[in-house]
Specification:
Shape: globular
Number of domains: 1
Number of helices: 9
CATH superfamily: Spore Coat Polysaccharide Biosynthesis Protein SpsA, Chain A
CATH class: Alpha Beta
Oligomer: single chain
Number of strands: 8
CATH architecture: Alpha-Beta Complex
Helix content: 40-55%
């Protein structure tokens, strides 16, 4: 069984789209855990309506870890609340994950919408994670697979990291298990942060943060003033 873990805070506008994607999967051997960070909107009611479990959440790293503690599956799939995918996403991903004997994996991601700048940005991102997967694993919270034993081995996500805790997580997973990027299925992500703060501003922060991690280390201060709070 796969345990799908979704950290969420005030996600009533996006969570139903993701949960519908999950409900429509051709692969049915899964459980869904929503780690809710005390939402003030209908996030918890929506999760309950779909019959999915709810655990205490917080910042994304804490929510993912708390969801993993409650998970029953041997494979975890960590998803952000604003992603979508086609009906064969789980089937194709799990088949590839097992066939390639992977222990952790990321996903290539695409933007939801037709903005050419979004497509260029994620094209560069996908090229980056594809090239580095063999020696310096990178993956987004928009889709991370990990075997339960490996999640425990690396002590889960590091909640002291202010930015790119998902990248740090798969990097550490790559030390003890086989990491690759899934090729047979893709995740589609909402562009709300880019639309809210501006494409150039967010893109530049992410580029600088990647360089910071390579040459200095994990980001444990708010040096980039990146707003980690969830946005509607």
């Amino acid at each position: 069984m796969i345990s799908i873990i979704i950290p969420a805070l005030n996600e009533e506008n996006y969570l139903p789209k993701l949960l519908n994607c999950i409900k429509n999967q051709t692969y049915k051997d899964y459980e869904v855990i929503v780690a809710d960070a005390n939402s003030k909107d209908k996030t918890k009611q929506i999760a309950k309506k779909y019959g999915f479990r709810i655990v205490k959440g917080g910042m994304p790293a804490f929510g993912r870890n708390n969801g993993a503690k409650a998970a029953k599956g041997e494979i975890f799939l960590f998803l952000d609340a604003d992603v979508q995918f086609d009906n064969n996403f789980l089937k194709d991903s799990i088949n590839e994950f097992n066939k390639r004997k992977l222990d952790a994996a990321g996903c290539y991601i695409r933007p939801i919408g037709s903005n050419i700048f979004d497509k260029i940005f994620f094209g560069i991102f996908n090229l980056w994670i594809g090239l580095t997967q063999y020696f310096y694993p990178n993956a987004s919270g928009s889709g991370i697979f990990c075997r339960k034993w490996l999640h425990k081995k690396v002590n889960g996500f590091d909640d002291t990291i202010k930015l790119s805790e998902d990248m740090d997580y798969v990097r550490r997973c790559g030390r003890y298990g086989k990491f690759r990027v899934i090729e047979s299925a893709k995740s589609y992500v909402a562009m709300r942060r880019f639309e809210k703060e501006g494409h150039f501003k967010v893109g530049l922060k992410l580029l600088l943060s990647a360089l910071y991690r390579i040459f200095i280390g994990e980001i444990r201060s708010d040096v980039f003033k990146y707003n980690l709070k969830y946005r509607k």
